[in-house]
Design brief:
2 copies of one chain form a homodimer. Chain A has 2 domains: 125 residues, Fumarylacetoacetase, N-terminal domain (SH3 type barrels, Roll), CATH 2.30.30.230; 299 residues, Fumarylacetoacetase-like, C-terminal domain (Fumarylacetoacetate hydrolase, domain 2). Helices cover 19% and strands 25% of the residues of chain A. In chain A, α2 crosses α4. Chain A is globular and about 70 Å long. The termini of chain A are far apart. At the A-B interface, β7, β9, β10 and α6 of A face β7, β9, β10 and α6 of B. Chains A, B: Pfam families: FAA_hydrolase, FAA_hydrolase_N.
Chain lengths: 443, 443
């Protein structure tokens, strides 16, 4: 087991020579150092390259690599990162290489550093950048790790049996669509498809009327496993590179009609939005917390059980969903926060997701994406989907100025945010994961 | 609409200067010309390249391309094919480029051709070759297009409601796992996982005891569509490169416990086997047939309906499943054929699969793989899975020499075969899609 211990890079008193890294409320202090794929706005596609966030700047890793400032693991990781246009090559090197690169970047960005390994000329303002999906995603798997979400949404689809008998035993997951994963800021069309109105004798065809969000975290796989070789629970996190925010947009009317017996398909695969910034497992180490399975629930089967997973398998990541309507924007109003919760409420841990996924021999590859599933907390204001927040569409959300929402309307913009804070540790954040609904294509 | 018409390459009297292309019962006469990714046995990974089957030989397209024998579309397609180690680049060029290359290869291989564009030195014996998965598969989607299979298997999982209400309206599909798609000849371990024995209060963990096959065709996407842009029904086949055989191995005990509410996951994603040879849409043109929806069934919604789809949307592809047990092999016995059927029985056509998949704006990419779902025909001996053939495990299959099978045992080898024959057309085939079950990894 390779558990990342706290080290100098987590020191909450550390400061950077990049002044904005000390700005009040920044997501990107020197203790974070997340990765993204970026280019300066307007550069051509060949210029997509890797960057690391520091304050309101991006460290251009290709520029740093041109000077080859380091040796050993850090140098190998830097060269792999700089040679690829996505995070895959760096991810494939595994957690020790990522850790070495983090340490080298931390030392180079620290207040008092010589500004030779990383120089001010290597910085690109985030305000001048645009982003792409961080990795070439081979496969995308979405889990269902919040028992609160599973119960809330199960109540809509199966009032007689909201929580199915397998839920407390199996970390339920299913395969999603990799090709339609888009990056924050990219808008998408409202999907068209079949739905079955209550009481109707035949389905209708048209634009979805129950377009929803799902507040999730995305988990990028680092080192893969060979086909046929399961990953034991205490090695699972060695296969995780880092986390991002993920919005699994969902058309509930399409979903209700299509999902049996093989699961959601067109109701989900029209778009999935991820944040550009991937926060590494090492950056998240200070915010680990105990994983708790209520005593009156079934306890996990042995392959999903370990002392480490019990003691520190969960992460206290604060999550928030903000909604902006066209009317709010034309009135100059701020976004309305419609949900606040934490990843710590998940019923299954990140390590349990990885181990369950591979227990049958299924192979994960660098850059593969896992979604946690909608991370609803125990109370209704902690629900991460509109179908929960509005009790299946029966109780509209009240927005400022008398506006209401049941499901998303055209022009609505949803922004997910995530951050970690804890006494004795720095506050780090995930940036934003935003998307806007365009009208359906005419049919 | 670009419908491939019959042309000189379909002439059943055409012969090749490669003598084995005229052998009785060959899958690969000059009218077929399917593509694979191959190397000579023992060559290193950098040598994976594209080949075209002719008789018992493979035309090495990289060797042909080195002489740049053609002009225009055929030359462009050949250079794209030769520069890639998988079929993706050729697939991305679309159906007209593939058609031009087919015509050029046909002319070069025809009896009496000058043997300058393709020479005997460009041929590699199939007996000396090994194969890889034909494309880098971005996403793999599995459909469920046989109503006979859906009814038979629904009876096992939901005796009270075998065929769900959406089946006759929606071409049901779900996302599968791309990373574990393997090529014919690769064996795989019996998967381990959770199942819920009847009457038990808690799940058990161990090797699957109900390991099954699924006889399917695989559909490789050629030219893709942009995110947000649906593919109309009469353009759908322009986005298909060709077909292969596909065995969607399934662990029924894992499936029964895990599949609700999000669909099959670990019960399917441990291995999916495809044949190395991809038969192009143009080669399949002579075997088109009318698509028939029984009058007393719901007729398709308009987006899934067209005159062309009615007249010629189905394909009469003969399919067969052969089983070989260790005891049969040690006795020198031939494989036992356990199923014979045809793709013409499918409830939804290939074009309907593509159009439904994209109607919500989902983007398909070159090299993506669609499975048809298990292609069971109307009678029980036409069923493409053991769970159907054995009535859910209650009626064992009788094999030669008194041996029986309910589900697969370790060492069992399953081979799928497919071919087309029709009066006035050549007989063409798909080769073999074989896999062997290895014992489960010890736990």
């Amino acid at each position: 087991m390779h558990t990342i211990a706290l080290n100098a890079t987590h020191d909450p008193s550390a400061r950077s020579w990049v002044a904005s890294a000390q700005a009040e409320g920044t997501d990107f202090p020197i203790q974070n150092l997340p990765y993204a794929v970026f280019r300066r706005r307007g550069e051509d596609a060949a210029r997509w390259r890797l960057g690391v966030a520091i304050g309101d700047q991006i460290v251009d890793l290709r520029a740093v690599a041109a000077r080859a400032p380091w040796h050993g693991n850090a140098a190998q990781a830097l060269q792999a990162a700089a040679a690829d246009s996505r995070l895959n090559a760096l991810m494939a090197l595994g957690s020790e290489a990522a850790s070495a690169l983090r340490r080298a970047l931390f030392d180079a960005l620290r207040e008092g550093a010589a500004q030779q390994a990383v120089t001010p000329a290597d910085l690109v303002p985030q305000a001048d950048a645009e982003y792409d999906v961080p990795a070439r995603i081979g496969d995308y798997t979405d889990f269902y790790t919040s028992i609160h979400h599973a119960t809330n949404i199960g109540r809509q689809f199966r009032p007689d049996q909201p929580l199915l008998p397998n839920y407390q035993w199996v970390p339920i997951g299913y395969h999603g669509r990799a090709s339609s994963v888009v990056v924050s800021g990219q808008s998408f069309r409202r999907p068209v498809g079949q739905s079955m109105p209550p009481g109707s004798a035949q389905p209708q065809f048209g634009a979805s009327r129950r377009l929803d969000i799902e507040l999730e975290l995305g988990v990028f796989i680092g080192a893969g496993n060979a086909l046929g070789e399961p990953v034991p629970l205490d090695a699972a996190e060695d296969h995780v590179f880092g986390l991002c925010l993920l919005n699994d947009w969902s058309a509930r009317d399409l979903q209700g009609w299509e999902y049996q017996p093989l699961g959601p398909f067109l109701s989900k695969n029209f778009a999935t939005t991820v944040s550009p910034w991937v926060v590494t497992m090492e950056a998240l180490a200070p915010y680990r917390t105990a994983w708790d399975r209520p005593q009156d629930h079934p306890q996990p089967l042995p392959y999903l059980e370990s002392a480490h997973n019990r003691a520190a398998g969960a992460f206290d990541i604060q999550l928030q969903v903000d909604l902006s309507t066209p009317r709010m924007r034309s009135a100059g109003a701020a976004d309305a926060t419609i949900c606040r919760t934490s990843y710590r409420h998940a019923y299954w841990t990140l390590a349990q997701m990885v181990t369950h996924h591979t227990v049958n021999g299924c192979n994960l590859q660098p850059g593969d994406l896992l979604g946690t599933g909608t991370l609803s907390g125990p109370t209704l204001d902690q629900a991460g989907a509109l179908i929960e927040l509005t009790l299946g569409g029966k109780q509209p959300l009240q927005l400022p100025d008398g506006e209401q929402r049941v499901f998303l309307e055209d022009g609505d913009r949803v922004t997910l945010r995530g951050w970690c804070e804890r006494s004795g540790a720095a506050r780090i954040g995930f940036g934003a994961c935003a998307g806007e609904v365009l009208p359906a294509r005419s049919i």
